[in-house]
Protein 1
Amino acid sequence: MPNFSVKDSVFEAAAERFGTPLYLYDERGIRAAARALNAAFAWNRGFREYYAVKALPNPAVLRILMEEGCGLDCSSQVELLLAQKVGAGGSDIMFSANAMPPSELGLARAMGALVNLDDRSDVDTLTGFGVPEVVSLRVNPGGKGGNQFMGGGLDAKFGWMPSQLEDGLLVLKAAGALRFGLHAMTASNTLQEEYFAGNAAMLLHLGLELERKTGLALDFVNLSGGLGIPYRPEEKTNDLALAGELVRREYRKALGERDDVRVFTELGRLLTGPSGFLLSRVLHLKRTYRDYAGLDASAANLLRPAMYGAYHHATVAGRRDAPHDHVYDLTGPLCENNDKFAVQRPLPELRLGDLVVLHDAGAHAHAMGYQYNGRLRCAEALHTTGGGFRLIRRNETPEDYFATLVEGETE
Ligand SMILES: *Cc1c(COP(=O)(O)O)cnc(C)c1O
């Protein structure tokens, strides 16, 4: 079930103050999720969550997560610069390469980040910048499983085949590496707590084998992201304590008394997803073959429904419990028929000016925004633990849109 802990009066007040469309993030919910995760893995001495920056790349939110002890998982130059901006450095940063421009791997190295290599060519690139004592390799265990986002199967673009890892590690060892970590992400948005345990068992098994073969020490296993959230009312919330306990059992099975292997995660969606809301007002009501409600937000603000057919729960502020006896397509103004937040969705009867709350918009939401049709990315605000509001990103303006154009004579 989506997160209903933020009151409609809070949504109304934020929309009144900052206008719509608006992303609102709930600091209390974000902190609670980070604490629950840290508690679930407290049994592991070196446990650390590296929040996947791509999910919600706003410095205000990244600072909150760092205060809760999280590091940051980055995958681009700009994400590294964001990490730098919020004071992260060295082992606070995990940098995952994939078809990575060499200069970005160089920047990650210069910042002292842990680097997670995606293939053999990254080894050569890294060697050029100097190989650190601890290196990480991303594994694709193959087989079937995985999904359209993360693959984790034969068609996944990410990671090394297990049989390729030994050679890669030996090259890294010759270049100065002493310890290694293994990383895998073979699912996205799963609601099965066992996923992390299965991933841990696979990585630990492989890690111990590679330790024997290469003489390098296994330093960590990175379970990455992929534990998901209940977007739909009938879905259940992942039980983090259970997920942590299931990993602990696999850890004991593989390592016995040994406790020097650190466990890392890189959750994005699970930490911030349920604490983000896209607020939008009904600007048009139209009745043709169906009933349409046109909102002031569009797929350019929240792409997931248009791109993946993803479900986002919608409520109407002040009428959450009213009878849902009307059926609407909730649309945006883009000239694309997939610009719909909901299709044939039961809702209370809508009126012009109603505030529609799109739930679970705290991850892979504002971050995937774009400017198609000259629609501009909207503001983001934080609902603080103290109950106040803070603007953490302003609306884009036409000036922002025009700023990158180059005009002048053709040479
Ligand atoms: C996207 C991503 C994550 C986070 O995924 P979630 O589904 O948000 O948990 C973690 N690690 C890597 C390498 C990723 O690409």
Protein 2
Amino acid sequence: MFASLWISVLLAVLCHPLLASAGTYSQVTNFGANSSGAKMYLYVPTSLKSNPAILVAVHHCQGTAQSYYGSTPYAKLADQYGFLVIYPESPYSGTCWDVSSTATLTHEGGANSNSIANMVRYTLTTYKADASRVFVQGGSSGAMMANVLAATYPDMFAAVIVYSGVPAGCFYTGTVNGWNSDCAQGKVSKSAQDWATQVRNMYKGYTGKYPRIQIYHGATDTTLRPNNYNETIKEWSGIFGYSSPMQVLPSTPRSGFTKYVYGPNLQGIWASNYGHNVPIFGDDDMKWYGIVGGSTTTTAGPSSTTTTTAGTTATSPPGSGQVQWGQCGGIGWTGPTTCVSPYKCTYSNDWYSQCI
Ligand SMILES: *[C@@H]1O[C@H](CO)[C@@H](O)[C@H](O)[C@H]1NC(C)=O
Ligand SMILES: *[C@@H]1O[C@H](CO)[C@@H](O)[C@H](O)[C@H]1NC(C)=O
């Protein structure tokens, strides 16, 4: 009996990593118009759900689709939750993304942003995926691209997460795959309104809503200076009509990070002790996308100019529980452990539970 127990434990341990990557990762070569020559790789978990969500995971400079597939938690999370992951690959030497040309900064402009949009369209059709649950995340150059996709294809993406990027349009040089060193060095500063106008000009005539966005950045980043965080927050605050944060959540998602909640569509996560490589919080990402933890559908209304005044959802009588998005548990947490109705305190990891 002991022996058979041990064998099943051993089997569970041995099999887990194999089971965790049981899906298929492969290149797709017929996804549609691809004038910029970007490549498409797709991860299809064996546990694929019907009408699945799609996550686009965009690699950094020097990265590849394969390296990003291996180094990020999304394929495993796809196994767990049954969604598809698209890993686009940059066609350029050095594998940064084109976030600097007029074409890529234009809806249907025919450059990298359009190639990625076509990968999404192909996947929606081929897998009968859920057009209302298409998400994007990226690191560094991939984060820049995630911001660009939010600006150029706001109707395609429901939610976005950027790990250490720059605002959409900040890297503009007018050349393909250019490097804007003023932006990288944090020397580009604009008003929220100017940023918002630049975003709107990337998809002229569009009056629909923009995706909800989370921005991570390290306070000691010397590659893409931290001012890019502040400018990105300003950019999307301009789009959503937010001003100052309605909530500041220290030690969130864990010690060394502060979460700033500007409204239902915008959060910033400032990593005091990190440079350019901010860790990926895969479980939290699933919550922002609404893949787990119930609906995170925006309640701010259909307009891109909705004004949510600071404090409208943050004020709650003392003792009545934590507000939406607020922390409600985790190692070292001494604040409220219940949530205002209808939010539920939901375990994220040992460091962090959140009202969602
Ligand atoms: C896109 O271009 C790349 C590089 O030329 C190629 O490998 C890929 O097959 C192309 N895909 C499509 C759909 O044209
Ligand atoms: C950028 O935002 C962070 C977090 O809110 C803040 O600590 C920092 O002082 C801001 N930097 C600038 C230049 O405003």
